[in-house]
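Hi Q.,

Before the meeting this afternoon, I wanted you to have the S-adenosyl-L-homocysteine prediction in hand. No need to reply - just skim if you have a minute. The sequence and ligand are here:
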Amino acid sequence: MLAQGSGMTSVRTRTRMIERLRAQGICDEKVLAVMGQVPRHAFVDEALAHKAYDDLSLPIGFGQTISQPYIVARMSELVFAVPQHRNVLEIGTGCGYQTSILSKLFKTVHSIERVGGLVRNTRDRLSSLEIHNARLRHADGSRGLPDLAPFDAILITAAAPIVPENLMDQLAMGGRLVFPVGDVDQELRMIERVDDGFTETRLEKVKFVPLLPGIA
Ligand code: SAH
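Predicted structure with the ligand bound:
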């Protein structure tokens, strides 16, 4: 049973999170509205629900984490600025929080996760939240999904050791690939497909779990 309306998971708590996101520079109203709708406490263990709306990353089992609200909002805002919203590819489903946000911004979400236990838990969670436009796949996401390309946007929620150039070809014209890169010192980057090729923008310093090879 979700602790709806009670203290730390109430509408007021969510409203405070949105105000904080605005203060942190998030300004896309649609992204802010969606972040206010999706119940973040439903994605973490009940014992951590009271911290769900704080600006923290939290453990989700299997040694993985749910990203802090700011970074989810930031990456969502960057990918939502593309010209079309037909499909988006997410690499690193985790608990499905970012997936759920994307499901309200794009017609279809394809999300790949390497840990089988997370795929199973997240499928159940998304279905209980009545999110039906997200397709989850248990696989190593580093090659993307060439069969379903092109994508209007691609987002990687684990840090790649090097720029994932193979995924650039899976972008639609005007599409954006947003990803963290690096090991200890990580940076958020964005690659955009433009008429005569690609542009790359270096964004802020970030901290993500690493992108790992193979499945578990
Ligand atoms: N998007 C999540 C963040 C999950 S953390 C959120 O909303 O909070 C990153 C996830 O990427 C982990 O679940 C990890 O298992 C997964 N991951 C790491 N390497 C991967 C790979 N090569 N392919 C697919 N998923 C991967």
